Amino acid sequence: GAVVSQHPSRVICKSGTSVKIECRSLDFQATTMFWYRQFPKQSLMLMATSNEGSKATYEQGVEKDKFLINHASLTLSTLTVTSAHPEDSSFYICSARDRAGAYNEQFFGPGTRLTVL
Amino acid sequence: GQSLEQPSEVTAVEGAIVQINCTYQTSGFYGLSWYQQHDGGAPTFLSYNALDGLEETGRFSSFLSRSDSYGYLLLQELQMKDSASYFCAVRVIMNTGFQKLVFGTGTRLLVSP
Asked: From the candidates A21, A94, A103, which should be mutated to test the interface with B, based on the most B CB atoms within 10 A?
């Protein structure tokens, strides 16, 4: 099946620093990738949709200058949390759509747990 | 915007059958998906309905009624490993023509011996 990887799996940083999270589709080409944020015991909230080679589309209420998304290739998207603060601590999950799949399905990465001190 | 409602928690015993309901309000509806998520893990795809009716995949089945904006996930022959959170998610068509998934509130399923 389609595999999506994320790196790092866990990161702890100081307030004010920037953190970059990578998302890769390992065995398929993903023209569309999605970034979600999940707080403990809550649902996944879509942050943005990124299409290869174009600017990301951010959901309402998500600061595009704070959460920088780059989708440079068909297999790689990055999310950079700039000037991170403790309230940005969360579980960040990327997802990639396999357009060749039976259901045009989205597959999810294992997530990155960000802790900002 | 979109809104999806699910029960927050469901409990059942091993071997039983449980149904998790999902009601939704959205524009640009394309289909309803179901995902399972264990604590600390990634969501994994279970089932998808684009048309009304029942889809069966092993022990899991999913149902959709587009006219009622309602669907459910049916889990049969429950096992302890089925204890997890279950999310319904609507696929919606954006103005760009691309699809996105919007997740429901999630249902925590606890299976006891």
From this structure: A103
pLDDT value of position A9? 96
Residue A41 burial by CB count (10 A; 0-12/13-18/19+): exposed, middle or buried? exposed
Distance of CA A114 to the CA centre of its chain: 12
Provide mean pLDDT across the span B61-72: 97
Q: Rounded to whole angstroms, how far apart are CA atoms B33 and B31? A: 7
Task: Say yes or no for a CB contact (<8 Å) between B48 and A57.
Answer: no
pLDDT digit string, tens, across residues A42-101: 999 999 998 877 889 999 999 999 999 988 888 899 999 999 999 999 999 999 987 666
Distance of CA B47 to the CA centre of its chain: 8
Residue whose pair of structure tokens reads 């009304």 in the numeric block: B52
